[in-house]
Amino acid sequence: MKTSQNISAIKGEAWGSRLGLVLAMAGNAVGFGNFLRFPVQAVQNGGGAFIIPYLVSLIVLGLPLLLIEWSTGRFGGKFGHHSTPTILDSMSKKWVWRYIGVFGLFSNIAIASYYCYMESWTMSYVYHSVIGTFDGLNQHQVAGFFENYLDVTTSTTGIPYEAIIFFVLCLALNTWILSKGLSGGIEKAAKIGVPLLIVFGIFLTVKAFTMKAGHQGAVFSGMEGLNFLWTPKFDSLGNPKVWLAAAGQMFFTLSVGMGTIQCYASYVKGKDDIALNAMSAGFTNEFVEIVLGSSIIIPISVGYLGIDKVIELTNQGGLGLAFRTMPFLFEQWGTVLSALAGLSFFGLLFLAGITSSLAMGTPILGFLQDEFKWSRKNSAVAFGSGVLLLGLPTIFFFQKGVFDEYDYWAGTVSLVVFAMLETILFSWVFGINKGWREINKGAEIKIPVIFKYLLKYVTPVMLIIIFFGALAAPDNDDWSKLGFSGWEVSHGSIIGKITHKGEGPNKDYFAHTYYAENNGTVDSIYSLRKKHYIKVASKTYHYPAKAQLVVKTGDTVKTGDALYKGDIVNDRFYVDMARLLLLLVFAGLSFLVYIAFKKKENNKTLIS
Amino acid sequence: MNTSALILMLAVWVTVISFTVYFFVKILKKPPDTALDIEEGLEDHDNQ
Question: Which of A363, A382, A407 is the last residue before a domain boundary?
């Protein structure tokens, strides 16, 4: 009975075509990071020289992880499993692996909850680019538009709660496509989305390449930006930070360590190739990242703003550059071309985002369908609702650091931990010989035998190094400080985050006094769009309307001096609540896995 | 654009594009059926 139910639940799910599968996998991998993270990482880590650790990471980390995830997915699919708890459980008799597989559910729902929010920004920016909202705005106003957009209580466009409306629209679209199934929804979206994204990318690349100094307001040619990005600074290769940044980029770009690849591959027929499919999808992602990703935001920004300003802007990350600056730069191209460029750029990001968020939904749907016999439609609605609930704190408390917490714990730490453990499982528990046979089963290309040794020794060691690098990175990324007598950890490391290292004097959740977090003179106290601010040197503090100020313009303050009094909820409260929420989500998913396996055991007992 | 940047960029681009095209041509030449063969999996499971 159980078996026939399983078959009927899964039989309707299959890829319609091989091209569809490869494009869906490529779409899963291609995301915001290809266009916004890669070029910024390159600029900050040695320019053209960054490509050397990047390609080394591709060979020793990226490609091996792709092979592991494709082959374990297809292996689990043979038993009707489509999510990592059950896939990993089928590879070992030890019960612990099913709970390690929870990472492959957790990271997807948690990442989707803030990723879909970013996706909704791109949807909104496509709309505003087309209707001409940015026409005539100066650079400061375009940047201000983004700030106001993130502040859900403020509306500059007349649409109340615009950020939430676009987020819900975006989620509804994701849910609808997911409910249409693998071949009827995801595959169709990938077949339209990935080629269209490449067309948009090529259009913007050509535009960047043909930008000339003195034409359409450009100060430098597009080639100047390419030169800036690709000029190799080989001395940077001696810094471990650069190598860790390259390895980190590999995780984000290939979408490994998430459980999405296993899920997609679990719908591949047992004897079909996975080696060639994995390489095709992986290299399509590399093409989009290295060729298109390096040719859009940096060359266009340098063309208008110059190298020094771009270096300053990249310190705020690629997101800031894309949403605070790019619409203003496109404006310089004239009304029609700026609308087209806005549509292409934010449309490209939207397509890159949605093909990835759909992949994040699939393991959750697979788990609910397989283990609880839910229909695809109900599972899709459950995923959409879960993402909505989990995503709302990132919208309402974006400025309080909730979004960053989700990104750190679910989008960074979880991926590294899961990738490290699944590699150990594949190479050392499942066994490299069995694993190698799985990889080569039905393979239409010959994978060089060196990969067998990389998979067994180099990739696990690399992942353990990356994990410890993330756990206890030294302060200021100064790796020369490492020693047996200990070292000061960075506030961005796992230990640093847990201990709230480097946080200012506002440590209590609730307080009646808010203290300055930097030294300097109170430059100004002002109100803007019903919000109130105190500017101390380069730092601006927001204070509640009912607060009682204890400083005035011209005062000199030191870190720890009182700025204002009132009923205050400090950021640490929101940060810790976000962590607690994520922890509860992980525990809840673990409990569902426990129930699912308990049901399986009960069914086995009944049958026997 | 300076020579080292240009050579590096072109070398990487040509390599990445060549691999992508090569793999895609191989895929398009032979599109097998990818439908899930669940019975085969269940057989494997029974054999374990």
Answer: A407
Taking contacts as CB-CB distances below 8 angstroms, the residues of chain A near B31 are 17-19
Task: Write out the H or E segment, with its range, that includes residue A513.
Answer: strand A510-515
CB contact under 8 A, B44 and A79: yes
Number of domains in chain A: 2
User: Nearest by CB to A444, which of B2, B19, B30?
Assistant: B30
Range(s) of the domain holding residue A539:
510-569
Note whether residue A129 is domain-resident: yes
Contact B23 A272 (CB under 8 A): no
- Alpha-carbon distance of A244 to A252, in angstroms, equals 13
Interface of B with A (CB under 8 A): 1-2, 4-6, 8-9, 12-13, 16-17, 19-20, 23-24, 26-28, 30-42, 44-45
Read out DSSP for B4-45? HHHHHHHHHHHHHHHHHHHHHHHHHH--------HHHHHHHH
DSSP secondary structure letter of residue A399: G
The reported pLDDT for the residue numbered B32 is: 53
Residues A155 and A30 both lie in one domain = yes
The torsion region of residue A493 among left (phi > 0), alpha (psi -120 to 50) and beta comes to beta
A7 chain-B contacts, CB cut-off 8 A? 38-39, 42
Our CA-based measurement puts residue A42 at a distance from the nearest CA of chain B, in whole angstroms, of: 12
**Residue A545 φ then ψ, to 5°:** -60, -35
Q: pLDDT tens for residues A457-489?
A: 999 999 999 999 899 989 888 888 888 888 899
ipTM confidence score: 0.88
Q: Report the domain count for chain B.
A: 1
What token pair was written down for A412? Answer: 């960074």
Instruction: Check CB contact under 8 Å for B24 and A18.
Output: no
Q: What is the span of the domain harbouring residue B36?
A: 3-47
**A524 SS3 class:** strand
In terms of C-beta density within 10 A (0-12 exposed, 13-18 middle, 19 or more buried), how is residue A602 classed?
Answer: exposed
DSSP single-letter state for residue A490: P
Distance CA A574, CA A271 (A): 49
pLDDT in tens, A293-331: 999 999 999 999 999 999 988 887 888 889 999 999 999
Question: What is the tens place of the pLDDT at every residue in A352-408?
Answer: 999 999 999 999 999 999 999 999 999 999 999 999 999 999 999 998 999 999 999
pLDDT of residue B33: 52
Across the interface, do B27 and A277 touch by the CB < 8 Å criterion?
A: yes
Positive or negative: CA dihedral A231, A237, A241, A247:
positive
Can you give the CATH number for the domain in which A523 is found?
2.40.50.100
In a domain, A552, yes or no: yes
